[in-house]
Amino acid sequence: MRLTKIKLAGFKSFVDPTQISFPSNLTGVVGPNGCGKSNVIDAVRWVMGELSAKTLRGDNMTDVVFNGSAARKPVGNASVELLFDNADGKIGGAYAGFSEISLRRQVGRDGASFYFINGTRCRRKDITNLFLGTGLGSRSYAIIEQGMISRIIDAKADDMRAFVEEAAGISRYKERRKETEARIADTRENLERLQDVRDEVEKQIRHLQRQAATARRYQALKGEERRLSAEVLALKLRDLDSGAQVQ
């Protein structure tokens, strides 16, 4: 798997639609200072999901949109597309059958980013997951910038481990494990909330059961009261009848 082509439009100094091809495994990009060589690397990082404006040498993410010059007006959005040769099937999963894979990201001046894989809208996470364990990505060892070697040499144990895990191809499994653990934690939290709801419902049921028992006892007592009242009335009527007969 290798990067074969970059298509840029409105991205930093590449205001006009520009296509950069990489015909072989080793390609050099040369030019005078300020011609946009670093912007090519920024474009790759950006499509891979980079979220740090500082890493892209800007103050905010909308700085990647061409902001105009003395000769050109600003543009409304920026777009970069990366084309990868996947003939070796390095990128597996749902895209294993594609010999070429396209990644595209675009952003407007409102700051809203949109990601695409092979022309289909996707999430940033889908792109980062696609390259987990391949050595590619916005912060992977595949992109070595100025000062990176020194940072690796001086890196702490945890940072060095991250590079080794990515190179060994196990970072994807750690990421999936992390996601699974997060889902388990969410499930446990939901179960605890459900238990709280169940306890509250059971409490209400017990209260209603007591009310129902009280209501049944009330109805029984009212029935007994009516029966006794009827008997008293019957006795009174009998006494009246007896008195009338005596007279």
Task: Report what the structure shows.
β5 and β6 form a beta hairpin. The chain is an alpha+beta fold and 247 residues long. Helices cover 45% and strands 15% of the residues. It has a domain of 135 residues: Rossmann fold (3-Layer(aba) Sandwich). The termini are far apart.
Q: What is the H-and-E element order? A: EEHEEEEHHHH
What would you say the CATH architecture of the domain at 2-136 is? 3-Layer(aba) Sandwich
The CATH topology of the domain at 2-136: Rossmann fold
- In CATH terms, the superfamily of the domain at 2-136 is P-loop containing nucleotide triphosphate hydrolases
Poorly predicted segments: none
Question: β content, as a range?
Answer: 15-25%
Beta-strand segment tally: 6
Key terms:
alpha+beta, 247 residues, Rossmann fold, 5 helices, six-stranded antiparallel beta sheet
Can you describe this structure in just a few lines?
The protein is of the alpha+beta class and 247 residues long. It has helices at residues 37-47, 124-130, 148-153, 157-168, 171-246, and strands at 2-9, 18-21, 77-85, 100-108, 113-117, 120-122.
What is the element layout, followed by pairings?
Blueprint: E1 2-9, E2 18-21, H1 37-47, E3 77-85, E4 100-108, E5 113-117, E6 120-122, H2 124-130, H3 148-153, H4 157-168, H5 171-246
